[in-house]
TrEMBL record:
This is Inorganic phosphate transporter. It comes from the Eukaryota. One of its GO terms (cellular component) is plasma membrane. The keyword rRNA-binding does not apply. It is found in: Membrane. The chain crosses the membrane at residues 46-65, 72-93, 99-118, 139-161, 173-194, 223-245, 265-288, 295-315, 321-338, 359-381, 393-412. Pfam families: Sugar_tr (PF00083). It is a multi-pass membrane protein. GO terms for molecular function: carboxylic acid transmembrane transporter activity. InterPro entries: MFS_dom, MFS_sugar_transport-like, MFS_trans_sf. Residues 4-415 form the Major facilitator superfamily (MFS) profile domain. Keywords: Membrane, Transmembrane, Transmembrane helix.
């Protein structure tokens, strides 16, 4: 039997691989089809398709996860990952342009499954915890497999470009194999998810008949609106930066330093991922020691500073690949030891069990909406002579600063037990029901007490 950590974490590894493998595939497709066919616009379309699908998946499965349970929904997302991955690997449209549009649709389907994993993995990981500290550590460890997925995607890209030549036929083999590999973890997981059980906290909630069927969005916004501004707003802003970086690292490296081969770009891409990866595990170590909000504030502050350095010194930094790899890698390190980890963990502690999946899914969806903005816009921004990379780095610095401000005013650590939030939620819901019944009774009495006027 696969343990609970791998049951959720391996799915997240799968998601990260599927999202980030487009990084090196973008360069491969551009070499195969040339910039005349794989234009900046088409690159933005293909890169952002999975993110747009993820927004829909997060909203849909966040809601369904609270309505129908974590288990059945995680089986469904696993199946969608398999179907979407197969469609990506088999993409064909009769011509280069049609094949790319087929890939756009297939990536959207894949993204729908990827998106569903976010709220379900987060909610179920937190609900199996034995204590507050264990809850944060479990969720953080599950999320840390995103970094492993990024590394694996980079290594697979490096392997493909090392064993195959850069002919059109072999370039096509490269990207199809890279997409196909992403199907394997989901194929492995689907049986174990079918035989898994619901988390205890969710089962307890069902026995008390307190779940999303009894809650209106007006209630959620009234009592948890500020928290939603914090979790959704920071995730939206941060992911504009984070996914623009991660999905286009290989494209950025192609313009840094001397003219590089595909193999050199793939190697440098792996090196950046290696610099970034420890950030996840430093965050896991400090998740309870520093607190999630402090980690987020620290990471955003350092990201803002490094982006300003990149913007100010771009003319000299762009000619030195080593300096760029260190600075760019550090922005990703402090993303992971910072807002990337905190935006995922904090919704699991800021919302009660009955609406946790829904609110986490909504927040994650706003994150992927931001990622779509970054993914779609990045290729267009850097190709604009009046904006370019310098304008992009300054924009990233400004967005990071804005996310820091929202974090300061709208985010909080909850160091108590989840049951405290659940009890508070039930009390608020009972109070709301009582007020509704009183209002209804008063209206009914007023109608009955109104004298009937006989029409003459």
């Amino acid at each position: 039997m696969v343990n609970k950590f791998l049951l959720r974490g391996l799915g997240f590894f799968n998601d990260a691989y599927d999202l980030s493998v487009i990084n090196i595939i973008n360069v491969i497709l551009q070499d195969q089809y040339t910039k005349g066919v794989y234009t900046a616009q088409m690159k933005s379309n293909v890169s952002s398709a999975a993110l747009i699908g993820a927004v829909l998946g997060q909203l849909t499965f966040g809601f369904l996860g609270d309505m129908y349970g974590r288990k059945s929904c995680m089986v469904a997302t696993c199946v969608i990952l398999i179907v979407g991955g197969i469609l990506c690997a088999a993409a064909y449209g009769g011509s280069a342009v049609n094949t790319l549009w087929f890939l756009f649709v297939a990536r959207g389907i894949l993204g729908f499954g990827i998106g569903g994993e976010y709220p379900l993995a987060a909610a179920s990981s937190s609900e199996d915890a034995t204590s507050t500290a264990d809850r944060n550590r479990r969720v953080a460890l599950t999320f840390s497999l995103q970094g492993v997925g990024f590394i694996f995607a980079g290594l697979m890209g490096l392997l493909m470009v090392s064993v195959l030549d850069e002919t059109k036929t072999q370039l096509e083999i490269m990207w199809r194999v890279l997409f196909g590999v992403g199907v394997l973890p989901a194929l492995f997981l689907v049986y174990f998810r079918i035989t898994a059980e619901e988390p205890e906290a969710y089962k307890t909630m069902l026995t008390e008949e307190v779940h999303l069927r009894t809650v209106r969005w007006t209630f959620i916004l009234k009592h948890y609106g500020r928290s939603l501004v914090g979790t959704a707003g920071t995730w939206f802003l941060f992911d504009i930066v984070f996914y623009a970086q991660n999905l286009f690292t290989a494209s950025i490296l192609s313009v840094v330093g001397a003219k590089s081969t595909l193999r050199t770009i793939a190697l440098q891409n792996v090196l950046i991922s290696l610099v970034a990866l420890p950030g996840y595990y430093v965050a896991v170590f400090f998740i309870n020691r520093m607190g999630r909000k402090n980690i987020m504030l620290m990471g955003l502050t350092l990201m803002t500073i490094i982006f300003l350095v990149l913007g100010i010194g771009w003319h000299s930094i762009s000619g030195n690949a080593t300096v760029f790899i260190i600075l760019f890698g550090l922005t990703l390190f402090f993303s992971n030891f910072g807002p990337n980890m905190s935006t995922f963990v904090m919704p699991t502690e800021m919302y009660p069990t009955a609406i946790k999946s829904t609110c986490h899914g909504f927040s994650a969806a706003m994150g992927k909406a931001g990622a779509s903005v970054g993914s779609y816009g990045f290729a267009l921004w850097v190709d604009n002579p009046s904006f370019g990379y310098i304008g992009t780095w300054y924009t990233f610095a400004g967005i990071s600063l804005l996310a820091l401000i929202v974090t300061w005013f709208c985010m909080f650590d909850h160091n108590g037990e989840s049951s405290e939030l659940d009890n508070e939620f039930k009390a608020l819901l009972a109070q709301e029901d009582m007020e509704t019944r009183k209002s209804f009774s008063h209206d009914t009495y007023a109608i009955e007490a109104t004298p009937h006027v006989q029409r003459v």
